[in-house]
Design goal:
- The protein is α+β, with helices and mostly antiparallel strands and 421 residues long.
- Helix content is 38%, strand content 22%.
- The protein is built from 15 helices and 16 strands.
- The strands form 3 sheets. An 8-stranded mixed beta sheet has the order 1-5-6-11-10-9-7-8. Strands 13-12-14-15-16 form a 5-stranded mixed beta sheet, sandwiched between helices. The protein has a 3-stranded antiparallel beta sheet with strand order 2-4-3.
- Helix 1 runs antiparallel to helix 5 and helix 5 runs parallel beside helix 9.
- The radius of gyration is 28 Å and the shape is elongated.
- The model has no long low-confidence stretch (mean pLDDT 92).
- It binds one RNA strand of 77 nucleotides through helix 3, strand 6, strand 10, strand 11 and helix 11.
Length: 421
RNA sequence: GUGGAUGUAGCUCAGGUGGCUAGAGCAUCAGAUUGUGGCUCUGAGGGUCGUGGGUUCAAGUCCCAUCAUCCACCCCA
């Protein structure tokens, strides 16, 4: 710890070299999978005008009400560290006129998000998400793809037993009637609801559904579901989505209480849950947002997307799979004895690196044994020893660290010799 | 924002009812092996006992406060 006691801020953490290999593995998997499916990366700023999230995510959401990192910059602009990836992606889609280029636009992103919450297992103030967005595709094929592709990534990571929760929350033509029906159903028991649900009753009645408090569940154990009230279009969309998921063999649970905390969703909402990572068991979620592009100043454009929490995925992968080694190791470590040999080692190492090999050498003039130990810890496949003898003849002693076999070869042959094995 | 638990070495943790220079394992470094890693043995370095105050002849230990971490609630990734 630092003398002045400075540590990483609350809710943040360092990914240290021992863990970075695993993260690189996950990141590579995400990229590879998305690109294989025809998605292209978009990188948006880490902060945006606060207004984007207030309008896009919705002013009654927990994110906007109490979780945003918002501040005034030196120019007096109101700025917010991005709490999620969809609103910025939509903003960029509109700003750069992607709507008038080839549709659908299939985008993916990966990077840090920020929410001011009390940290706990699987929850941080700076966390990482990967996600995908399809804009300009109204049919259920887009929803089905957006649900299926992350499952592919989970599977490749070794995450088992992912439960897909699925729901539809309707569209502007059928949602209002359902909202009203919910309010009517809850009206008689309003006095028995928890304080936050009392305010939800007026502001965002759908959120009454996903309150987990005992009192609210007891007040109305079986609230009316939307399924009888979906308009023909939403109903057909939902059926179509289910058919496609069945075709892919993707299992799911219909959960009429799955509302999700973002206001922009229409029709499809879904969430992935796993066990064994603490009480925050959602590793990803998403849904359709057919009005969002227009809301952000673009032409009417349907959209659907998903976002997954990378640290929760990593936790789930570690809970399932045994510890795996993701560190690369290196091809050759050059051991040098004496100053002249060290200079030669430096020269040889850089030359071999130019030939594409992973090579390191001793920089601090330690003894032979210490250098050997270090080479072993760095998991070098070969060690090349340079001492006075080798220096005199222009050779090196090459040791295969897995077998212990040793040979002397010309220094000029080193790279070729290593590459052969 | 609310509740609970926990803060002793880089890491994981011991230290009944207060009492000598605060310990172990792992890790690091070195030696055993004067030019050879892993295994073994030996040794060394490394500690404001989270911080501040209080009680006491005496506090890592008891009391209060504070900060931090973890877990849970809310909600979400």
């Amino acid at each position: 710890m630092f003398a002045v006691g400075i540590v990483a801020p609350r809710g943040t953490f360092d990914i240290m070299p021992d863990d970075a290999g695993l993260w690189q593995f996950v990141e590579g998997l995400v990229r590879e999978t998305f690109e294989k499916c025809g998605y292209r990366e978009i990188r948006t700023p880490m902060f945006e005008h606060t207004e984007l999230f207030e309008r896009g995510v919705g002013s009654t959401t927990d994110i906007v009400e109490k979780e945003m990192y918002t501040f005034k910059d030196r120019g007096g602009r109101l700025i917010t560290l991005r709490p999620e990836g969809t609103a910025p992606a939509v903003r960029a889609f509109v700003e750069h006129g992607l709507a008038s280029r080839a549709l659908p636009a299939k985008l993916y992103y990966m990077g840090p998000m920020f929410r001011y919450e009390r940290p706990q297992a699987g929850r941080y103030r700076q966390f990482h998400q990967f996600g995908m967005e399809v804009m300009g595709a109204a049919g259920p094929e887009a929803d089905a793809e957006v649900i299926a592709v992350p499952l592919e990534i989970f599977r490749a990571m070794g995450i088992q037993d992912v439960v897909v929760n699925l729901n539809s929350i309707g569209c502007p033509s059928c949602k209002p009637a359902y909202r009203q029906r919910l309010q009517e159903a809850y009206a008689p028991v309003l006095g028995r609801l928890c304080p936050s649900c009392k305010s939800r009753y007026d502001r965002n009645p759908l959120r009454l559904l996903d309150c987990k408090s005992e009192e609210c569940r007891a007040a109305l154990p079986e609230p009316p579901t939307i399924f009888g009230q979906l308009c023909p279009e939403c109903s057909a969309h939902f059926d179509g989505l289910r058919r496609l998921l069945d075709k892919l063999g993707v299992g799911y649970v219909i959960n009429p209480r799955l509302v999700r905390g973002l206001d922009y969703y229409t029709k499809t909402t879904f969430e992935y849950n796993v066990g064994g990572i603490g009480s925050q068991d959602a590793i990803g979620g998403g849904g359709r947002y057919d009005g969002l592009v227009e809301e952000c100043g673009g032409p009417p454009t349907p959209g659907v997307g998903v976002a997954c929490g990378m640290e929760r995925c990593v936790l789930a992968a570690q809970a399932n799979a045994a510890d795996q080694e993701y560190q690369a190791g290196m091809d050759v470590f050059i051991v040098s004895l004496g100053e002249a040999a060290r200079e030669r080692a430096f020269e040889l190492a850089h030359g071999m690196r130019r030939e594409g090999l992973a090579v390191d050498f001793d920089m601090i003039g330690r003894g032979l044994k210490a250098q050997m130990r270090y080479a072993d810890k760095m998991r070098a496949r070969f060690v090349a020893i340079l001492g006075d003898d080798e220096l005199a003849t222009g050779e090196a002693t090459v040791k295969d660290m897995s077998t212990g076999e040793q040979t002397r070869i010309a220094q000029a042959e080193l790279a070729a010799c290593v590459r052969r094995q």
